[in-house]
Amino acid sequence: MSEDIVFWVLAVIAVAAGVMVFRFDSMARATYALLLSLLCVGGEVLLLGLDYLGVVIVLMMTIEMAIMAVFMVMYMMNPAGLMPMSMLHNTKGATVLCTLVFAALATGILLVRWPARRGRPPTDPTMALGMSLMGPQMLTMVTLGMALFATIVSTVVLATRRGRYDRFGDDLRSRPANDPVQGGGGR
């Protein structure tokens, strides 16, 4: 009974947050609404007993949306993506396309013959899922993940103009600190 309640609460929040992605008028707010929706989806996957996949969804979406928000703050023309803008484009065409896709999928769900279960579930569903997703390429994917993480960290480090202690001078004794925010002039 409690799992049913959690399922429906997460489902309602996921849909509501997904709708808010298109209702907010800033990219930053839309990003965090999308993050909330995807976290609820990750919670739904966890409820299905797919712990590995649910945790991967939660971690991946959290990191992805955080990076997206940081890049919006750094590179968008408007400050932090908070200036009003429309998230809706070609609403009539999108409505027609979405209606047709929904009708096709609903028809498929209702008309297809669903297979009966054969065999028993594996003793370790996480291992079985990992093997069916990655197969023998698990080491490659782990290495690729670490390489991507190192690339992200390196990019952020190389993008900063000065280090944490540069404002204190080469010998770290410059007082007051040469801080551009407090009127020290900067470098």
How does this model look, in words?
- The protein is an all-alpha fold.
- It is 65% helix and 0% strand.
- The protein has six helices and no strands.
- The chain is extended, with a radius of gyration of 24 Å.
- The protein starts with a helix and ends in a 28-residue tail after the last helix.
- The model has no long low-confidence stretch (mean pLDDT 82).
Poorly predicted regions = none
Number of helices: 6
Distance, first to last CA: 63 Å
Characterize the main sheet: none
Q: Estimate what percentage of residues fall within beta strands.
A: under 5%
Q: Give the quaternary arrangement of the chains.
A: single chain
* Mean pLDDT across residues: 82
Percent in helix: 55-70%
Molecular shape: extended
Radius of gyration: 24 Å
Number of strands: 0
Order of helices and strands: HHHHHH
Structural class, from secondary structure content?
A: mainly alpha
Helix and strand arrangement:
Elements: H1 2-23, H2 27-47, H3 51-75, H4 91-111, H5 125-134, H6 138-159
Helix pairs in contact: 1-2, 2-3
Top keywords for this entry?
6 helices; 0% strand; single chain
Question: In brief, what are we looking at here?
Answer:
With 187 residues, this protein is mainly alpha-helical. 65% of the residues lie in helices and 0% in strands.
